[in-house]
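Q: I have 365 residues here and want to know how they pack in 3D. Can you give me a structure?
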Amino acid sequence: MTNKEKEILEIITNNPTIEQSEIARLLHISRSTVAVHISSLQKQGFLLGKGYIVNHDTYITGIGACNVDVYGKSLIPIKTHYDHPAHISSNVGGVMYNIICNFTKLGGKARLITAYGDDSYGNTIVNQCLANDIDITESLPVKNATSGIFMQIQDDDNDMYLAICDMSILEHITPAYLRSKERIITNSEVVVMDPSLPIPVIEELITICENKVPIYVDPISDNYAQKIKPYTRFFSLIKPNKTELESLTDIRIENDDDLDRACEKLLDTGTKKVVVSRGSKGLLYRDRDHRISRVLPPEENIVNASGAGDALMAAIIYAEVQKMDLYDGIDLGLAAGIAAIRSETTINEQMSIDLLDRILKEKRK
């Protein structure tokens, strides 16, 4: 924001119905110059619409994958080279979409920066984002391109057997494109990053956010953990599982002492917070001042385990943005994971703070 834009924004904040001619008189500039500055403020997200509504909303920004997920759930034990009877379904997904969608269902405001094609999948992605109150206006539509697709085969125990994905659409997000969204990014409370982004884009995002806004990362997989390993000092929070933490730290984890040692090593690189997802063992939270190990009673009604980690991440971010007590925020994350695995779809359509409160009451009996 330029100094003149700051002056104009202050005037409009104090008098949202003021005419452009009056602003011009107060600042001793032409009306056309005022119009240019107001247009810039609108593009940067500081003003909303023609009525000069000042945007005071707190929001987070997710940058990464949004795609269509296709799930095939085998009805019999998996065999190689065999035609399996199955239940097949599809929905909008992608780690970043899942996190952001869960976050908005909890009541938060979020913007999504992703890329999508001009195909039927792309239309589905846009419509689903709009239906879930996700601001997708900063995302990149790509002509003559195929939107991201993720395909997963689940075994008869509802767990992932194998998965493949095509996220080449993200290559259209360049450092220059990200730089064009700098104001939106730096005005965020938190930026959530997807490691599937190209490395030059990750490096540009780090440059944009450094000392301005915290970056949170879910490593997603062992391979992606290796990809972000050189950059861990720039991340305020990382949420790995056991094998991803091993990949990030080169420490084989066989017991709780190994787990603590790996977390310490990650904190020593400069990461401020580590949240280790431990499945049925709950989670471990570590920062320089806290070691919190939490677990809720085991869940028997497991319908689909694929969305638990994304829901947990969303709830923890929500708790931080709302400045909740640390212990309450961790429990909220655990409850969100349970809500996810009780749902046939990756995102529980009933996800809400009320649902998570009910789950916590149920589990604490």
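Q: Anything worth noting?
A: The radius of gyration is 22 Å. The mean pLDDT is 90.
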